[in-house]
Amino acid sequence: MSTDYFAEAFDCIAYGSAIVTAKAGCRSSSLHTTWIQRAGEDPPMVSVAVKKGQPIVDVIDSAGLFGINIIGEQMEAAIENISKCRAQGENALAGLWTCDWGGAIRIGDCIAYLSATVYGKYDAGDHWIYVGEVTCYD
User: Fold this and answer.
1) What gap in Å lies between CA 50 and CA 36, rounded to an integer?
2) Which helix (H) or strand (E) holds 127?
3) What is the dihedral of CA 106, 119, 36, 24, to 10 degrees?
4) What is the DSSP letter of 9?
5) Beta-carbon-side half-sphere exposure of residue 128 (alpha carbons within 13 Å)
6) What is the domain partition of the chain in residue ranges?
7) Is 29 within 8 Å of 55 (Cβ atoms)?
8) 3-state DSSP helix/strand/coil % of the chain, to nearest 5
9) So what's the architecture of 15-137 in CATH?
10) Which residue ranges of the chain lie beneath pLDDT 70?
11) pLDDT value at residue 46
């Protein structure tokens, strides 16, 4: 099977868009992702895939929890800013209204927010898959 066909097939999967956040002590990190999914119902669970080597991996591992900010089109500029700032080693959430909520960082203009306690971390090649039990949401 060609890798082009594989990529085309996966491009057909519908994804949501989210900014994943984590905070451990004075360290915080965030990243934009589309690799989020509901992973269980009772208790409510979510999963998120994070590329290995991303700074947020160490923060999630230290904190034992992460936040998922579900975003819409109104936040396209924020996504671009987050990507640019992360590449330059700057605070990716600077200029956005944020607050600590449920142990992670909530972004004010998100459509929905949830925080989750890490239930498991699984090796998936070049990514880690975190499964978390949802502890609060809005």
Assistant:
1) 10
2) strand 127-137
3) 30
4) H
5) 16
6) 15-137
7) yes
8) 25, 45, 30
9) Roll (2.30)
10) 1-7, 10-14, 77, 83-90
11) 94
